[in-house]
Amino acid sequence: MVTFVDQVQVHLQAGRGGNGCVSIRREKFKPLAGPDGGAGGHGGDIVIVADPQVTTLLEYHRRPHRSAENGGYGAGDYRAGTNGAELLLPVPVGTVVKDADGETLVDLTEPGERFLAAKGGIGGLGNHALASSKRKAPGFALLGTEGWSGTLTLELKTIADVAFVGYPSAGKSSLIAAMSAAKPKIADYPFTTLHPNLGVVQIADHRFTVADVPGLIEGASEGKGLGLDFLRHVERCSALLHVLDCATLEPGRDPLSDLEVIQAELAAYPVPEGQTPLLERPQLIALNKIDVPEARELADFVRPELEARGHRVFEISTVSHEGLRELSFALAELVEAARERELAETVASPRVVLQPRAVDDGGFRVVPEGGSYGTLYRVLGAKPERWVEQTDFTNDEAVGYLADRLQKLGVEDALVKAGATAGSTVVIGPGAGVVFDWEPTVTSAAEVQMGARGSDLRVEQNERRTNKERRVGYHERMDAKAEARAELERERAAGMWQEDES
Fold this sequence. Notes:
The protein has 502 residues and is of the alpha/beta class. It has 3 domains: 1-156, Distorted Sandwich (Spo0b-associated Gtp-binding Protein, Chain: A), CATH 2.70.210; 162-345, Rossmann fold, CATH 3.40.50; 365-460, GMP Synthetase, Chain A, domain 3 (2-Layer Sandwich). Helix content is 28%, strand content 19%. It is built from 13 helices and 18 strands. The protein has helices at residues 58-62, 127-130, 172-179, 227-230, 255-268, 293-308, 324-347, 382-390, 396-409, 411-417, 445-450, 457-460, 467-493; strands spanning 7-13, 46-50, 65-67, 87-91, 95-98, 104-108, 114-118, 149-156, 162-165, 197-203, 206-212, 239-245, 283-288, 312-315, 365-369, 376-380, 425-428, 434-437. Strands 10-11-9-12-13-14 form a 6-stranded mixed β-sheet, sandwiched between helices. It has a 5-stranded mixed β-sheet with strand order 3-1-8-5-6. The radius of gyration is 39 Å and the shape is elongated.
């Protein structure tokens, strides 16, 4: 059964934004009182957070697909949709997040550090938010956009100050158990340790963490054994401790040859750019199992040779704890020196300068592409692609609104400069995108039927007259009656008709 996983792929799907609502407010004596459609809610984000309580990526090995909540739809009476809940993915401290191309996105080395892995979709605006002095009654709303979806790689690199390296069964796990409160699995067969073990060493006023790297054998850097899977855990360590077995019974092995093999594997392992190669880091030698008489004799024999090579050597026993105090103080000195260097480099690091966006950056670009069916013009940019995704192409008025937005952004001018003419094929977005037969002027059927785009005569009509209008109408009626009486008097005087004497 798998109990430790330090590299997984996760498939993420952020929440989709909710659609906006098309609604008209109803009031007494005014059934069409204006738009009141609310906006849709935003989709939920997916955030990766470094959690010190998590020690493995096993949970994501079992369930690699994670999805955030979608945003709610807008409703009438100005009611906005609910935002999708944020999805938190806790990972161990020391996790590196990489994209599908293997590029490092973030290195989560601090507890509580957060990384926005997948951004949720944007909720669409309702027709109330789209209304303006020129567009008093929009008959459409914007759709919500899809959240980000993709695959990320999570790679765990153990954060420890000192790495214990050596052949299997050299006593690395026993050394951690003797120096700290860690309780790793210990047995007398090779590859007992199947995952790195961490321990905290407290000696006087010094406190540092140690980790053993299991499975290092000849050819580990090329994938042999378990070493290649766990060599990445050495990258963050500031010092190395070579644990050499002086009581091995395997033919052809001795502390000197074991050291040469391990150093060759460490030298062959490529570290990330900007980090110190493994063999250039401070190193100590621990000759282990000197509680065995033959092992003590061998340790006394090889120690002068190791010191002649420039190594600092300690003879130790994890059973009797002989030499562990001196070794702990020596490791503490290396760790303190490394921390001081890191602090000096942090203080002297250059200040990060944020560059503002260029003033002449239009937010899009037009790329002519040739093909067997003629030249097409591809429009690429965050705004045009998002606007197309938000458009309901079954609504002519919404299509006209999209044309207005693209024209104001300068897309039509850019198409003309790129050589597009009426009837040219225009694609907005990468890949298949959305295809148009471009016309410089777009008129929707809704405008032909009901006037200017965004207007609705049913909403704009007002049958109630003002006092001034009533006064003017009254005077006009009185003047008309007076004129009618005068006309009748003129006809009577002309003898066109006579009054009946009876």
